[in-house]
Amino acid sequence: MHLIKLIQIYLTIFYGQLLSIGIYENLLTGIPELIQNSQSYFNITRVCLGILIIIQSIFSLIIIWVKKFKIVFISGILLTIIFLVYIIVNTIHLTQIYEKLSSIDKYKTLIEVLIKSFVLLMGLIVTFFMSSRGPYELVNQNEK
């Protein structure tokens, strides 16, 4: 199996999981919290981030299999923006609620954010790898 196929499969799983996070964590739980507290920047940002994640995930799932590698690079840039917004918003939110949490909840929340950040970072790395490696794989495949 070629490397590009493995990367496509990995990115399909990654973006599918990212799509489910965007729907469940950001929209389905964010919208009721936004209705309860419409003044909270965290809830507004969470819903907006969820919409951005859904759009970006669907866009990325399509272009991964079409093999438009320059557009995959654009997808990587969008994912970088999502990653940075996620880190900034969660860091601000964690500093605000940190004092209110019990010690177990502090560790649980911190571990959850770190794991999600790591998964996003891995998807980001593989997306950029595919955008740079993909054309090379196709040229080598056509020469054989």
Features:
144 residues, mainly alpha, 5 helices, 90% helix, elongated, transmembrane, membrane, transmembrane helix
Beta fraction of the residues?
Answer: under 5%
The main pleated sheet reads as: none
**Number of alpha- plus pi-helical segments:** 5
Gross geometry = elongated
Structural domains: how many: 1
Summarize the structure.
The protein is mainly α and 144 residues long. It has one domain. Helices cover 90% and strands 0% of the residues.
Word description of this protein:
Helix content is 90%, strand content 0%. It has 144 residues and is mostly helical. The protein has one domain (3-143). The protein starts with a helix and ends with a helix. The model has no long low-confidence stretch (mean pLDDT 83).
Summarize the helices and strands and which ones pair or pack.
Elements: H1 3-28, H2 30-36, H3 41-66, H4 69-97, H5 103-143
Helix pairs in contact: 1-3, 1-5, 2-3, 3-4, 4-5
